[in-house]
Amino acid sequence: MNTLIRFRQAPISVKEIKLNFFAPVEKVTNKNRYKFETKIYEDENFEVYIKGVRLTQIHRDILDIILFYGDTTIEQQIEENVPVRTFTLYKVLKMLGHKNPTKHIGWLKNKIDDLTNATITIKEKNVGDELSFHIIRVAKYSKKLESYVLVIDDLYLAFFEKELSINYKTLLPNILKLKYAVTKMAIRYLLTHSSGINININKLLKKIGVVGGTRNFDIQRKKLLEELQVVGKDFNISLKKMSNDNRKKSDYTIIYERHKEVKVYFPKQNEKEV
């Protein structure tokens, strides 16, 4: 399977989810919105930075809709070996749950501009390598096609080509209905684990980039617990209280068992899916 075909089937790299390209929030405060460069992730192996607007779960929702539901006809007609999607703003807004999509056209255009302008930089600490890219090369309206056209950036595709990728299209409608951004991010993170995972709730929150003081951490944990108790079964996710002491708010293990509708694809050299 070549990279372009794999991108049609599973257009989201596992690494971009695990390195928190998209924050576990719906919006950022104005004072933090246009920082020149912000570190968004760090562990023993990687540092990740973003220039431009900090991307959120709303941006992730929009990009998922376009990549999974956008039309690929143009992509298959041109000689250029890059992913291309055509789509209407109306359909994206309808899938996002806007009851009156025409009122939010300008808002959606701004979000797509955010996605187009953001620059991601990944620094590998151990080897000293550095890679920078936009996710989207261009996204603009075509009068001829009467649709928006989105073209994926070449350098992003080069990054994608070497990484595991995921298809959770069947579950996306349920993700879009979730109330809290922290739940969306947590579920996307859990779905990347092709063999399932058991993880303490505090550890999960740290993995997905929940930051701030104790109060914010407690608020996000409460939101996640509240929503997973209602919708977890839809994603093969369950909660296990590890003690009978209700004062221990972090004493929960989140259990994700592999969902049959989620497929993880290996890079070309491995040629398999799980």
- Regarding quaternary structure, what we see is single chain
Q: What is the beta-strand fraction?
A: 15-25%
Instruction: Outline the biggest β-sheet.
Output: 4 strands, antiparallel
Order of the strands making up the biggest sheet = 2-3-5-6
Q: How many domain regions?
A: 2
Q: Give me the secondary-structure category.
A: alpha+beta
Sequence stretches where pLDDT stays below 50 over 5 or more residues: none
Residue-averaged pLDDT: 92
Number of strands: 13
The helix count comes to 12
Estimated helix fraction = 25-40%
Overall shape: it is: globular
What's the helix-strand series?
Answer: HEHHEEHHEHHEEEEHEHHEHHEEE
The termini sit apart by 14 Å
Spatial extent as radius of gyration: 19 Å
Features:
274 residues, 12 helices, 22% strand
Secondary structure elements and their pairing?
Blueprint: H1 3-9, E1 12-13, H2 14-18, H3 30-33, E2 38-42, E3 46-51, H4 57-69, H5 73-77, E4 84-87, H6 89-96, H7 105-117, E5 119-124, E6 130-134, E7 136-142, E8 147-152, H8 154-161, E9 165-167, H9 172-176, H10 181-191, E10 197-200, H11 201-207, H12 214-231, E11 237-241, E12 252-256, E13 263-265
Antiparallel strand pairs: 1-9, 2-3, 3-5, 4-8, 5-6, 7-8, 9-13, 10-12, 11-12
Helix pairs in contact: 4-7
